[in-house]
């Protein structure tokens, strides 16, 4: 008998525009101990399905149909009966571990209340059970964590706490709603490993809601592909990856870039006069720490001596985990924040420390596209006004008509319909807004565009379209790009060369394909090995390189020498690892042997 | 936290000094003086009086003497208007009265406002929600100088239940109307802020987590939602606390309570430099202390804030 069974479930929302049906009559079963993947893009209704079943819909939503757990109807149960199931028979973990825990309650308090409510367990017995579970999700120093507040833990650790908390009462079903989407790849890999083990050891069934085909390939026994509130395809994971039946499934799979296959651009030849030369750039932020009557300031070295150059027409991919300084570096290159040291020169002219008016001459050639398309457009300006704004600054000689003409051309070029000129950003989708952002950056035909996580907030199919658009524009206008992303598969698909950052420093820089297929630095190796591959056979047979320790903080002085434990042991805490050219045009930072690192930390 | 408090209080000293100097010059540059009246005094008499209060000295000397007396003797000088009374006396008499009805108003506005706001958010779109929203708007449309006459008209003139004014040592009958008059508009604002803050918190991810854990609604609200809800309320309460503690000129006038508000406004109108400065410094010091308390309260509401 199936553990959890949904029959003809509908979810409706009463909105000002009438009733909107988010889930349109779906049925599925989850068997004990299996992992079912519910795959779909944003707005497909995949989360709402489970929210409805667990009585967690917002007040405007209502659920119709049937959902049974162990044969008992649970849909629209009164809250006091539902509360006996939630957290006891069914555990839930959510996408954003940073906001999913109550900020003012200690980890221990939040875990204990689950045991108190469901099992009446209190005091040292409850504490012992919490500790046991924190250990099982492999949180270091579990005892200390019980008395800490959520903000004192990293994102990965908070997600482990969420998992431990939802597993406290040994639930039969764990609903995981995009559990790793907000996490770095190495942390994601850890969390997925953990969930696989729980599924095996505890026999817990998992409903994994995700948009990431790589995660699905690793985790799921069966998949349901969902689109616009309906299932379009269902079946065994391997079957679906091998021979997807529905067109939409094929689109999803094709849109997903792979780190181990598919086309990748080659590195361009070195040239004498690079377009942009970045030389030993440093960005240090003073951070206030307590101590003494007035406290003191210590520098946070967000970017600590980065040098590279950009060749004409090339794309440099910049990857690294959160806190590695990718975005800060982009802003420093554009002089949006002033570097604390080093030099940036554009076509041979230094642009660091220039006055605003002088800098503006160069800004015309240096543009940026930001991560959050909606937030980076002025909500009170129509999109055509946003696109036209750089023209007004740099081409004041144009007449209104000429300007309109250019905006219309650019809009057409980036795939925005002509009838959208008077729309506002909130009326457009994320992908359309990002096209606006690109049009705005492109309107003056710049020579260099920095894409700072420009596709990270978009659905995979949209992401593929935007990447394609950027590539075409690059061909057409011969522009260079710095493509910053935490997603290595996307970076590989667009970049000639890839630069890997770790805590503000370069650890490896070289040809994109070379870095992805034959990384040399241990950090790059662990990063690449953690990227999920959307192919169940390849993904499940892969060996991961797991470096010891959690993702370190940039405030920890020892973290910078994580790959040189020998220097640390020798007391040289200020030592700066040097880059060396191991192959032509392939630079790797100094590091100890892998064995030393694995045993050292 | 102790170091932080000390640091804040140290910074307060130059702040208050600056406040004194600025007020001092502003007042002296304003036309007229404490002894200007409709019937001008004979020049000889005026000179005499001014000499007695030191007003014939150069400004910097006056300022210096004033500061010196405060720092060394804690003496804020004599009142220019009321013979034989000095500023310390006037504050000592009026402040306890303002403090009494002010803190009661604060207590009433906070408890009723917060409870109403929470009830409205929990029962979103119910009659209690509409009532709270309505009251919030009504209270803002009914400032205390409108509430005062309405209350007196109703309870004293029509119903004859309460005395229409006076203080009488702060007996409860004399307190009710001033407290209601002063509290109403703040209560409305507090209810409104609490309601919208609670609605936002109830929509947040950690409340969803708490519900998904199977916690009873009661626990979700009181344990998980209350503290973050009150954070924006607390930042509003700080300045409100200072306002109501120092009394209200309208309450003092309508109900003849004799609080500091009346003395303050009176002194500004009659250029009673010493009283005006004295009360201003009291305001300033109270603001500094209350702001510090508010900031310390933040740390209790939100563990992310550490000093």
From TrEMBL, chain A:
GO terms assigned for molecular function: ATP binding; ATP hydrolysis activity
Residues of the ABC transporter domain: 6-253, 276-528
Transmembrane portions of the chain: none
GO CC term, one of those recorded: plasma membrane
GO terms of biological process kind: peptide transport; transmembrane transport
PROSITE patterns assigned: ABC_TRANSPORTER_1 (PS00211), ABC_TRANSPORTER_2 (PS50893)
Domain of life of the source: Bacteria
Annotated SUPFAM superfamilies: P-loop containing nucleoside triphosphate hydrolases (SSF52540)
Keyword set, alphabetical order: ATP-binding, Hydrolase, Nucleotide-binding, Transport
EC number in record: 3.6.3.-
Topology in membrane: Peripheral membrane protein
Principal subcellular localization: membrane
Location of this chain's protein in the cell: Cell inner membrane
Family per record: Belongs to the ABC transporter superfamily.
PANTHER family from the UniProt entry: D,D-DIPEPTIDE TRANSPORT ATP-BINDING PROTEIN DDPF-RELATED, TRANSPORT ATP-BINDING PROTEIN
Enzyme class: hydrolase
Endpoints of the signal sequence: none
Keyword Transport: yes
Encoding gene, per UniProt annotation: gsiA_3
Organism: Ruegeria denitrificans
InterPro entries to which the protein is assigned, alphabetical: AAA+_ATPase (IPR003593), ABC_transp_ATP-bind (IPR050319), ABC_transporter-like_ATP-bd (IPR003439), ABC_transporter-like_CS (IPR017871), Oligopep_ABC_C (IPR013563), P-loop_NTPase (IPR027417)
Cross-referenced Pfam families: ABC_tran, oligo_HPY
Protein's name in the database: Glutathione import ATP-binding protein GsiA
Automatic annotation (TrEMBL), chain B:
Location relative to the cell: Cell membrane
One Pfam family named in its UniProt record: BPD_transp_1_N
One Gene Ontology CC term in the entry: plasma membrane
Membrane topology annotation: Multi-pass membrane protein
Chain ranges of the ABC transmembrane type-1 domain: 95-294
GO annotation (BP), single: transmembrane transport
Transmembrane intervals: 9-30, 104-122, 134-160, 172-191, 233-255, 275-301
InterPro entries named in the record: BPD_transp_1_N (IPR045621), MetI-like (IPR000515), MetI-like_sf (IPR035906)
Keywords assigned: Cell membrane, Membrane, Transmembrane, Transmembrane helix, Transport
Homology family: Belongs to the binding-protein-dependent transport system permease family.
Descriptive protein name: Oligopeptide transport system permease protein OppB
Organism from which the protein derives: Ruegeria denitrificans
Taxonomic placement: Bacteria, Pseudomonadati, Pseudomonadota, Alphaproteobacteria, Rhodobacterales
């Amino acid at each position: 008998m199936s553990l959890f069974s949904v029959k003809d479930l509908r979810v409706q929302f009463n909105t000002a525009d009438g009733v909107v049906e988010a889930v349109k009559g779906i049925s599925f079963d989850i068997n004990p101990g299996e992992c079912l993947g519910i795959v779909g893009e944003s707005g497909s209704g995949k989360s709402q399905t489970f929210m409805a079943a667990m009585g967690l819909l917002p007040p405007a939503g209502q659920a119709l149909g049937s959902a049974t757990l162990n044969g008992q109807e649970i849909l629209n149960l009164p809250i006091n009966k539902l509360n006996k199931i939630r957290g006891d028979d069914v555990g839930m973990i959510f996408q954003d571990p940073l906001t999913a825990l109550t900020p003012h309650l200690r980890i221990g308090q939040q875990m204990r209340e689950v045991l108190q409510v469901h099992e009446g367990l209190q005091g040292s017995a409850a504490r012992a059970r919490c500790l046991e579970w924190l250990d099982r999700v492999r949180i270091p120093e579990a005892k200390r964590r019980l008395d800490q507040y959520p903000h004192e833990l990293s994102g990965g650790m908070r997600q482990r706490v969420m998992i431990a908390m939802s597993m406290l009462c040994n639930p039969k079903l764990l609903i995981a709603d995009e559990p790793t989407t907000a996490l770095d790849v190495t942390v994601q890999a850890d969390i997925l490993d953990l969930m696989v083990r729980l599924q095996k050891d505890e026999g817990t069934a998992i409903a994994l809601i995700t948009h990431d085909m790589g995660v699905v390939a690793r985790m799921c026994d069966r998949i349901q592909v969902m689109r616009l509130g309906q299932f379009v395809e269902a079946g065994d994971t391997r079957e679906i990856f091998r021979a997807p039946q529905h067109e939409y499934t094929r689109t999803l799979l094709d849109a997903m870039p792979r780190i181990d296959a598919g086309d990748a651009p080659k590195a361009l030849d070195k040239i004498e006069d690079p377009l942009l030369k970045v030389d030993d750039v440093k960005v240090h932020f003073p951070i206030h720490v307590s101590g003494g009557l007035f406290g003191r300031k210590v520098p946070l070295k967000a970017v600590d001596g980065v040098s590279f150059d950009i060749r004409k027409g090339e794309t440099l991919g910049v990857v690294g985990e959160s806190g590695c300084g990718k975005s800060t570096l982009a802003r420093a290159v554009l002089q949006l924040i002033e570097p604390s040291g080093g030099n940036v020169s554009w076509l041979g002219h230094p642009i660091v420390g220039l006055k605003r008016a002088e800098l503006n001459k160069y800004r015309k050639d240096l543009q940026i596209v930001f991560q959050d398309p909606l937030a980076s457009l002025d909500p009170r300006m129509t999109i055509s006004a946003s696109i036209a704004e750089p023209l007004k600054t740099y081409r004041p000689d144009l007449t209104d008509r000429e300007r309109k003409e250019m905006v219309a051309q650019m809009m057409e070029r980036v795939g925005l319909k002509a009838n959208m000129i008077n729309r506002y950003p909130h009326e457009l989708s994320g992908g359309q807004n990002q096209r606006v952002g690109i049009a705005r950056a492109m309107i003056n035909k710049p020579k260099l565009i920095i894409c700072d996580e420009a596709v990270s907030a978009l659905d995979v199919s949209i992401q593929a379209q935007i990447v394609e658009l950027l590539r075409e524009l690059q061909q057409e206008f011969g522009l260079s790009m710095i493509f910053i992303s935490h997603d290595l598969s996307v970076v590989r698909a667009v970049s000639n060369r890839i630069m890997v950052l770790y805590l503000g420093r370069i650890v490896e820089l070289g040809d994109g394909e070379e870095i992805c297929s034959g990384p040399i630095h241990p950090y790059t190796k662990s990063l690449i090995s953690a990227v999920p591959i959307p192919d169940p056979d390849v993904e499940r047979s892969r060996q991961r390189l797991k470096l010891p320790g959690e993702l370190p903080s940039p405030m920890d002085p020892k973290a910078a020498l994580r790959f040189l434990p020998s220097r640390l042991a020798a007391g040289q805490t200020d030592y700066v690892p040097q880059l060396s050219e191991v192959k032509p045009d392939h630079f790797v930072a100094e590091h100890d042997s892998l064995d030393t690192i694995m045993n050292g930390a | 936290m102790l170091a932080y408090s000390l640091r804040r209080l140290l910074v307060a000293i130059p702040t208050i000094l600056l406040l004194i100097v600025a007020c001092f010059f502003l007042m002296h540059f304003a036309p007229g003086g404490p002894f200007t009246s409709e019937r001008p005094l004979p020049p000889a008499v005026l000179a005499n009086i001014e000499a007695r209060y030191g007003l014939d000295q150069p400004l910097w000397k006056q300022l210096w003497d004033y500061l010196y007396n405060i720092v060394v003797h804690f003496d804020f000088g004599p009142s220019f208007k009321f013979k034989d009374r000095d500023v310390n006396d006037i504050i000592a008499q009026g402040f306890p009265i303002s403090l009494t009805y002010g803190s009661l108003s604060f207590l009433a506005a906070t408890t009723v406002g917060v409870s109403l706001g929470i009830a409205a958010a929990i029962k979103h779109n119910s009659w209690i929600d509409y009532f709270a929203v309505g009251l919030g708007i009504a209270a803002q449309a009914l400032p205390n100088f409108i509430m005062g006459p309405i209350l007196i008209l109703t309870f004293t003139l029509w119903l004859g239940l309460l005395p229409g004014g006076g203080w009488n040592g702060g007996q409860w009958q004399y307190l009710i109307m001033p407290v209601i008059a002063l509290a109403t508009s703040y209560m409305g604002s507090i209810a409104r802020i609490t309601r919208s803050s609670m609605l936002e918190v109830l929509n947040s991810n950690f409340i969803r987590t708490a519900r998904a854990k199977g916690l009873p609604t009661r626990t979700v609200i009181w344990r998980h939602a209350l503290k973050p809800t009150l954070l924006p309320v607390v930042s509003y309460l700080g300045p409100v606390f200072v306002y109501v503690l120092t009394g209200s000129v309208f309450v003092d006038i309508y109900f003849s309570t004799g609080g500091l508000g009346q003395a303050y406004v009176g002194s500004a109108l009659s250029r009673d430099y010493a009283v005006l400065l004295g009360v201003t410094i009291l305001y300033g010091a109270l603001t500094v202390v209350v702001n510090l308390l508010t900031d310390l309260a933040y740390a209790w509401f939100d563990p992310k804030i550490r000093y």
